[in-house]
Amino acid sequence: MKLSQVRIEEVEEIFQSPRKAVFCLFLGDSSKRFFPNKLTIIAKANFDHENIGFAVQIAIIGESHFLQLRRYSDNKIIYTELLACVDPRELGFFPDFSGDFKHVKSIHIRRLCQECRVSIRCQIEIGDKTKERRRFVPKIRDGKNTPGNRLKICFPGYLKPRTIVAYTINSSKLVVRTVHEYVAHDLLIEPITSNTTVIFKG
Known about the structure:
50% strand; mainly beta; 13 strands
């Protein structure tokens, strides 16, 4: 694993709502229209799984994240997911799918990408506001001997909100679980969680 990180003390505390978040998917060549250098990256980690032919990159960007999956056989990024409080098109991003939470508390996505031979299932949900931090570790039970890793950041502030991105991967699928704790103006935590499964079609 390779890890790079900025000092968390240097990150400005911002009150945000998950209602302003946008979830985006970039599949196959669409990942060329995703530009990470336009985002403020707080922590980034690269995980190599050469034995099964993939590499995974995770980045935490404020109380949000992006994750990319690269295939070694053709050195191609076949899957990118982004959750962020941004307008993707203002940044020049053109995802295959984007959805927001202005009028809903959950998003369910199913996609098939023939170009990169994967199918995707995603579920993203906003939880109820809470005064107490709940113990949350994204648990992934996906059989034995499945390599996995995670990236976790605790931010400064009274509630010390967290972002956690965890995944497992094997030769048939990638499973990703995330939690993002947003702190509202009333000093309550409003979590948003995502669950994604990317199935490789061979």
